[in-house]
Write a structure and sequence with these properties.
about 325 residues; alpha+beta; seven-stranded antiparallel β-sheet; five-stranded antiparallel β-sheet; 10 helices; 12 strands; globular
Length: about 325
């Protein structure tokens, strides 16, 4: 396995219109040593034997209940991703997916139990998205509409999670386009979340193969519901002296777009020691992303413009060449 370096940063803001912040997140750059202490500016480190972890939870329920639910979810993840809990499963991608699903299920049970014993917490809940990177794979688990994206300058921006929301169900039925869903009045209605003793709390999981230069973005809907994917791409491609600065720019993008909700961002940038793409991975990209919805793949704005201009110039050049050849032919005749 190549010597893989990871850069990790995260942050949260209560936004411009909320009195408190119901979002929570946690980052760990070295699960083997249970190291959850990440400086505000972020950290760069070699990927350890048990990998690294990023989690975002977006609480809901009013008063302090949403904050409590998201904190219970984060605390559960921290506890169940200790070295003792993962040492026997870290080497198996299937086991890692199962563990993420089990951890999310346990977080849900604890939230339900807490609400049952405190009437002030009844109705509280949270979304969650979890990313566990080991070797050259990430396992992702989610429940609700908190998202995970991957960005690479070769392949653009891709949404790896599929929202558990009403508008996503309408998209699946071809009753709504992703563009219409972004500004839909029912866009904030989610169909799954933690805090419910039913199938509405079930998590989904998937595995994704990592490439050199991949940047993974986990976020609450405080970013994804207000900042367009083009804006997110602009930030991810903008010059920045650190991933912490990129995090700040993403949060600023949400605030500049209205800041109507709490906004939380967690970032992971991967540098493979070989600097090469795993064999066959790029050729299988469409198959790999077939389950990602709303099948969101966007190309960097600047690169898209360059490609469009190049295409136009090639068409013009071909037309000019055709005219020249035709005139030359007439001259010969």
């Amino acid at each position: 396995m190549p010597n893989t370096t990871v850069e990790i940063a995260g942050g949260t803001d209560k936004g411009l219109h909320r009195l408190n912040n119901e979002d929570n997140y946690v980052l760990c750059h070295d699960l083997r040593h249970n190291n959850f202490d990440i400086p505000r500016g972020g950290i760069t480190a070699s990927l350890g034997d048990y990998g690294c972890l990023l989690v975002v939870a977006d609480g809901m329920g009013g008063a302090n209940a949403g904050e409590v639910a998201s904190q219970i979810a984060i605390d559960t993840v921290r506890e169940l991703f200790s070295p003792d809990h993962i040492c026997h499963i870290a080497g198996s991608s299937e086991a890692r997916e199962r563990h993420i699903k089990d951890v999310i299920s346990e977080a849900n049970a604890r939230i339900v139990d807490s609400a049952a014993h405190d009437e002030t917490r009844q109705g509280m809940g949270t979304t969650i998205v979890v990313l566990w990177m080991m070797e050259q794979q990430v396992q992702i688990g989610w429940c609700g509409d908190s998202r995970c994206y991957v960005f690479n300058r070769q392949t653009g921006l891709t949404q790896l999670t599929k929202d558990h929301s009403l508008v996503q169900e309408l998209i699946d039925k071809d009753e709504l386009t992703p563009q219409e869903a972004h500004d839909h009045p029912l866009a904030n209605i989610i169909t799954r979340s933690l805090g419910q003793a039913s199938a509405q709390s079930l998590a989904e999981t998937r595995t994704y193969t990592v490439c050199h230069g991949d940047t993974f973005l986990l976020c609450s809907d405080g970013l994804s519901s207000v900042a367009s994917e083009e804006r997110i791409i602009d930030v991810l491609t903008a010059p920045a002296d650190s991933l912490g600065r990129t995090r700040d720019m993403l949060i600023d993008a949400a605030l500049d777009s209205g800041g109507y909700d709490n906004v939380t961002v967690a970032l992971l940038r991967v540098s493979l020691g070989s600097g090469t793409t795993p064999a066959g991975r790029r050729s299988r990209l469409n198959d790999t992303l077939a389950d990602a919805a709303p099948a969101s793949r966007r190309w960097p704005g600047r690169l898209g413009i360059v490609a469009a201009v190049a295409t136009v110039l090639l068409v013009i050049a071909a037309a000019v060449l055709a005219v020249v050849l035709m005139l030359h032919a007439e001259h010969i005749i």
